[in-house]
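STRUCTURE:
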């Protein structure tokens, strides 16, 4: 584009960097990424390494042709600075999330409290690490039987093709192996209305993807008044949950290991009759919903309009 229209002003909005320092750093590790699709082996690793470095070079060239770029998170901005260099101005504009629709969900319905329901919301892909959610839930049930009494887990998400469906069946078998299958439901390709109803009954939302660039699902939890337990990396760490942890109004929890997720579940689901803990969690839900409005359609539109 720069060659075809040399005097044009080039502006980009980057939601998912084609290449990042995190992707380069993942080479040779066991952590699943969006590019693996179940493949492994030395030949695959070498091909992947060559592909990543070629993308790094070409993506850097393309980025340095921009006059400015909007990015969806602090995480994305920091990684693009490494690829594109300091000459391209980068401004953070959070992506629009379905805050308005989910914020209509009552924080505490008059006739009932929220159920002891834990929800996961992500596509069924290896890098989403739903297996860690199952392991954490199993450890929570084993370590905190009183707090886990009546607790259930719904793993909801999209399956696009046979590989994703194979992932669903793999997770079902894992739930059997962990002894938690009666407490776990898998909800695949549910419409938005059904997801909204699910969130209206949920107490806790689980997010386990490492280095997610933003984390729209975490914002959707917060908008619905669901306490998020998110991975301590990427957008949830730098923009969504992390900033609140240094204030008097935390909006959720951050975790990395299975043990940390299990401990966070124990904090987010206090024992019945613990009024002090219940008030703390109610305040967290209210703060989460308030913070979710930073990521609404209206805020996105205002920011984009002010920049054009």
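SEQUENCE:
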């Amino acid at each position: 584009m720069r060659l075809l229209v040399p005097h044009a002003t080039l502006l980009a909005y980057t939601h998912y960097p084609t290449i990042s320092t995190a992707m380069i750093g993942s080479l040779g590790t066991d952590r699943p990424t969006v590019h693996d699709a179940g493949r492994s082996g030395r030949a695959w690793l070498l091909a992947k390494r060559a592909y990543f470095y070629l993308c790094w070079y070409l993506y850097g060239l393309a980025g340095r042709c921009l006059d400015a770029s909007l990015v969806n998170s602090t995480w994305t901005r920091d990684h693009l600075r490494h690829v594109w260099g300091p000459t391209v101005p980068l401004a953070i504009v959070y992506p629009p999330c379905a805050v308005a629709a989910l914020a209509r969900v009552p924080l505490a319905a008059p006739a009932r409290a929220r159920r002891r329901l834990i929800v996961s919301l992500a596509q069924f892909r290896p890098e989403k690490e739903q297996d860690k959610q199952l392991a954490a839930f199993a450890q929570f049930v084993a370590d905190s039987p009183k707090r886990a009494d009546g607790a259930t887990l719904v793993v909801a998400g999209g399956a696009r093709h046979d590989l994703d469906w194979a992932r669903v069946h793999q997770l079902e078998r894992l739930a059997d192996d962990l002894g938690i299958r009666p407490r776990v439901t898998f909800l695949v390709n549910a419409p938005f209305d059904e997801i909204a109803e699910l969130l209206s009954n949920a107490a806790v939302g689980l997010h386990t993807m490492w280095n997610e660039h933003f984390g729209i699902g975490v914002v959707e939890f917060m908008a619905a008044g669901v306490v998020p337990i998110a991975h301590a990396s990427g957008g949830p760490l730098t923009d969504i949950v992390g900033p609140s942890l240094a204030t008097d109004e935390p909006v959720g929890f951050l975790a990395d290991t299975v043990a940390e997720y299990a401990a966070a579940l124990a904090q987010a689901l206090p024992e019945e009759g613990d009024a002090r803990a219940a008030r703390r969690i109610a305040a967290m839900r209210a703060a989460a919903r308030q913070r979710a409005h930073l990521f609404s359609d209206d805020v996105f539109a205002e920011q984009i309009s002010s920049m054009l």
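REMARK: The mean pLDDT is 88.
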